[in-house]
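Lab notebook: predicted structure, single chain.

Context: the supervisor wants predicted structures on file for every construct in the current expression panel, including those that have not yet been purified. This is the next one on the list. No modifications to the sequence; it matches the entry in the shared construct table.
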Amino acid sequence: MRGTKTLAFLTAMVSCMTCTAAVHADEDDKQLTASLGLASSDLSVQSWEKDIVIDEGINSVTFLPPDDSKGETTVINGIGMLVIDIKDSYFEEGAITIDSITVDGKELEFDESAMIFGANTGADNSDYRIELFSCFGKTKDTKPFDAAKVTVNENVTVTFTVSKPSPDKRLKAVTGNVVEAVNSKSPKPLTDYKVEISTVEIFDDEVTSDEETTAEETSTDTETTEAETTADEDSSAETPTDEGSTAQESTGDEEVFEFGELIRSVDAAFAPACTVDGDVFTAKLKRGIYDFTISKEGYAARVIKGVTIDTDLAPDALRDIDLRAYGDVNGNGVRNVTDISIVAAYVKKVKNFTDDYQYSVADVTHDDTVNVTDISAIAGDVKGIKEII
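Prediction complete. Output recorded below exactly as produced.
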């Protein structure tokens, strides 16, 4: 049933509502465009309006539900989606604030901290989504307002303030957090850990075929000329021609792949920067795929491979990362006889570990092998004879 509703929503986006945008900003400021999405909770009433001009400063957009077959305004019983997608942009945290939401002229109370800024749009693009609510997004659980109880008879108006977009929209502030004792009744935030990030692929928004491309050719001594090449159906603009002249310039340190309208490459020169503040870490990353290694002294390092960084600035893979102290095999925050039993069952080949990370946590002697020596070490810690380090 849900799949049917999802398909209905996607296919009906073309039925647009009337939407007005009031912009208050200096004339010289850079203008941006946005798409607005509104849907009822059962997705039977839905609207999508594109190319709404917004700008720095205060913006106000009004969603008007579509008319029914009799020319009367359709009543929306419960909101299933209310989103604003700013085209090809990226904003630092706090650069956009929601000032007010009114439904039929009445103020709607909401929790801005529960809204998702930079949410996943579900498309491979550089748009910046303000997810006020979406039954398909994370706000379904965070609940900025009680969307199911909102009835729209006339309109929904959202007023928000926009600061300047990031000068380099390709560098995005991606966040994650680390916890311990994840399998206890009270998981705890973990601090003083380290984050290492390695780049797998970088996504670049560049046309790969059937478009005019240019390449720079460097001559000897001081002369530098620009050569313009045109790709046609019988030629490949993506593949190298002569040494030093390619459709996608290469430094020798990167391998380039063709992927639809994106160029994917391994950028050896890009060094991701990451800071840790309490249990939360923030990394400045380009769109791409990365491997994250989380480590702390006395804890088994956890490697999270293949994390895609796109429009979602808080990927699920980086939320509540479970880091365990050596010997705490079941992840409840303490070493006890249960951990001894789990490791003993593995060594005796009675029951395997649930995942590779349990193996790492059980290897308390750090010799890349789990055996009776590890069982003895955990038992010694539990009995207070010798602490695991």
